[in-house]
Amino acid sequence: FHQVTFRHGELDNARFTADGQNIVYTASWEGAPSEVFTVPANQSGGRSLGIQNARLLAVSRTGELALALAPRPVGNSSFMLSGTLARGSMAGGAPKAEIENVAAADYAPDGKSLAIVRYLPDQRISQLEYPIGTVLFKNAMLTGLRFSPDGRHLAFIDHANASDDRGNAVILRATGEKVARGPLRDSQRGLAWSPAGDEIWLTSPLMDGSMLGLDLKGRSRALLNMPGRLFVRDVAADGRVLLGEGDTRRGIVVVSDNGESQRDVSWLDYSYLRGITNDGKTIIFDEEGNGAAGGYRTYVRNVDGSPAIEVGSGYGVAISDDKAWTMSMRFVEGGNELWLQPVGAGQARRISPPGWGAANGARFFADGKRVVYIAREPKSQRSRTYIQTLDGGAPRAVTAEGVNGVLISPDQRWIAVASPAGPAMAPVEGGALKPIQGAQPGDSVRGWTDDGQLYVANGPATLLRIDKLDPFTGRRTLWRELRAPAIVGVRPALPVITPDGRTYAYGYGLGFSDLYAMTGVR
Predict the structure, then answer these.
(1) How far apart are CA 334 and CA 336, in angstroms?
(2) pLDDT tens readout for residues 446-504
């Protein structure tokens, strides 16, 4: 091992140059915006290339850099970023912007042509293009795009859910034909080709310190297993491996009494907040880390700090007002299923029809007899919003495809949704969408107030502004400004807020990693 970085902050993509003599990497140190650095491969530290608020995507054999400028989260993903594709140079100078909404890219061995992953915001889909403009593959999220050394194959990780790094490694011919698909893993990020180009090397940074190989026939083998959590970044022609090693955790904070009281209510090592009851006394969350024993487990917990109750498997999605039932999303081959699970005694059962792909969004109506959820029907390209009774009724679509949302108004008449035309309200009984007046670019609707207004969040995580917005008149008033703690590696998520505004909760990520160059992997 040779440790390359030591500073406090978050490490991102890293690549060897073609000759293996230098390393180029992206990092956000001490809370500063992401920046591109270079360092000789046998040294530590790094010299800034003067390219800030950018993310390294690839390095060509001629030393050209493919970058994503002004990277931002894709949809509701906590780890996939997209930005404006630009080409830059290690010699300096301003990068030349080319294509918007690019999440990944890699150079072909000729050093000129690029394969890219482009995110389509209106469809919430990522697509692999090679050459640029020719679509080879589509799904919710695609990461880790890499050309094989001979340029004959493309490999990437296919994620069916844009908010989760669970996925399968896929190898295609550069012309688009499928070659191999690896097994589904609960965490799958990081991909690089072996020096011989006969297999790809993969890591699972939210699970463990293992690295696996997947060959062109779909056969897997173990390459490395060590303490910690590994993220493979690149492999040089001589076999040296660039690895990120560190730890990532998630936690939950509840703020009550109009901001006067705070409590950390995290449970295990990866507590992912999903919602809070209207009275502000109970949260629903799931555990996704090692503490969940290789799966996803739904929990509920009272915010007074009493022990959490494990409800069942899957993502936690929603909890009923009477706290007797939860909804969870379970993962099955070919799609996700929405399940109704009792908090106490009772029988769990599936809600969504067989073969449908449920998304991570659902709510109970106040009567406890109906639910609203987001799903995609078989053979449909996009999801939409459905209402379904819990007595065995069939789902009823209340929006067109591509229009999604589950936040129910206090009078139970409207559902706040996101549409290609912007934020809107869908009538529960059916009918045309009603645009939300006063919505601004960058707004995230977080919930309804008691008096029928919306909580909308906008701004950077360092200083998040939350307004109350009247969706009928457009009148906005400040509710609260939330400032992120000045602690390197802490990333607060958007809050969930009770209708009376007395209590809110937010999840946070806590991560750190260092870059290492390693030899001896075969």
Answers:
(1) 7
(2) 999 999 999 999 998 889 999 999 999 999 999 999 998 888 888 899 999 999 999 99
Backbone angles phi, psi at 198, to 5 degrees: -100, -5
pLDDT in tens, 82-131: 999 999 998 878 899 999 999 999 999 999 899 999 999 888 889 999 99
Q: For the chain, give me the number of helices (H) and strands (E)?
A: 0, 46
Two tokens at 284? 């629903």
Q: Which of 256, 359, 251 is closest to 304 using CA atoms?
A: 256
Closest CA to 174 of 218, 128, 142, 219: 128
What does each C-alpha distance from 202 to 18, 105, 159, 226 come to in angstroms?
A: 21, 17, 14, 14
Local structure of residue 63 (DSSP, 8 states): S
Distance CA 183, CA 220 (A): 9
- Rounded Cα–Cα distance for residues 249 and 264 (Å): 13
Instruction: Give 480's strand partners.
Output: 466
Cβ-proximal residues to 478 (8 Å cutoff; 6+ apart), any chain: 465, 466, 467, 468
Q: Quick one: three-class SS letters along 464-476?
A: EEEEEECCCCCCE
Cα–Cα distance, 145 to 514 (Å, whole number): 22
3-state helix, strand, coil in the chain (%, to 5): 0, 55, 45
